[in-house]
Design goal:
CATH architecture of the domain at 27-211 and 235-254: Orthogonal Bundle
Oligomer: single chain
CATH topology of the domain at 27-211 and 235-254: Ribonucleotide Reductase, subunit A
Distance between the termini: 27 Å
CATH class of the domain at 27-211 and 235-254: Mainly Alpha
CATH superfamily of the domain at 27-211 and 235-254: Ribonucleotide Reductase, subunit A
Number of strands: 0
Helix content: 55-70%
Strand content: under 5%
Length: 308
Amino acid sequence: MLRAVQVNADSLPAFDFSTPIDRSRWFVCPTLTPLYYAPIYCELQEQHQRRYNQLTALCFSELISFFETTFAASVLATLVAGTRHGMDPELAACLKQFVDEEREHTQWWQQLNQLSEPSLYTKRQRAIIRLPAVFRFMLNQVTRRPACFPMVFWVMLALEERSLEISRRCLWMPAERIEPRYLAIYRAHLQHEVRHVQLDWHLIERFYETSSPALRKFNAMLLRLALARFFLPPTRSAMRVVRHLVVECPELTPLRKVIESQLVKVGDDPAYHAMMYSRESTPITFALFDRFEEMHAVRNVLRSYQPQ
C-alpha cells in the first residue's frame, strides 16, 4: 500500500556548503561518464580524466535538476490537481511528498554546482545543457497531459532507476577518492529515490496499464523515440562537456576531433548500453518492459534488453 512518509525536520540531511570543493578528487564514478567507454580515454592523463569527470558531474547535476523541477514535477502536479482518475487521498499525499522531495533535491544539486564552479553558476542554474525552445514547448505539452501521454511514467521510472545506479556506483568508490559533498548528496538522494521508483511503478500500473491497447502502442513508440534521441546516446550536452574541457586544457586541442568522433561512437558500445539501461542497472524498468508486449520492441533501441 502506498503511504506518504512522515519526515522529521531534524532528520533532513544537512550538507556543508561553506568550505571549498576538493578539486583533487573525483565528483562521480568514472564508469558513469560517456568518454570512459571511448578508446581515447585511456590515453588521457589522469588530471584530464579527473577534470572531465568533474565537468560531467556538473552536467549530471544540471540534468537531474531539470528533470526533477520541470519533467517530474509537472507530471505529478498535474495528477494532484486533476480529478479525472478519481485520485484517492493517500496517492495524492504520496505525490505531493514526491514533488516536495524533488524540489529539495534540486536545491542540493544547484548549491553543489555553485560551490563547485561559482564562476559558472552564480548567476545561472545551467551552464552546460541547452534546451531548444521547441523542445521545451513539446515537453510542456506532454508532461501536462499524462492521460494522453502515459509514456511519461516510463521516462520517470527509467530516469529514477538510472539515478539510483549513479548513487550506487558512487557509493562503491573508495571514500577517499570521491569529493565528500558529492558522496553525501548521492547517499541522501539514494534514500529518497528508492521510494520514488516504487511510486513510478505504481503510476505505470494505474495509468498506463489501464489505457487502451492503441494508446499504449502509440506511447511505446514515443518512448522508443525518446530513448533513442534523448536518454541513451551521448547528447549535445556530453559534447559541450568535452569542449569545456578543451578550453580549460588547451593542450588537448590537437585531440579534440578524435575525442568528439569517439564520443559519438560510444552510443553503439555494448558496455555503455549495459551501464545506461540493463537488467543490472534498471531491473524494475526491464521487468515491466517484459509485462507489456508493445514494450518488447524497445530491444531495437536498448541493446541490453531482450524480452523474457
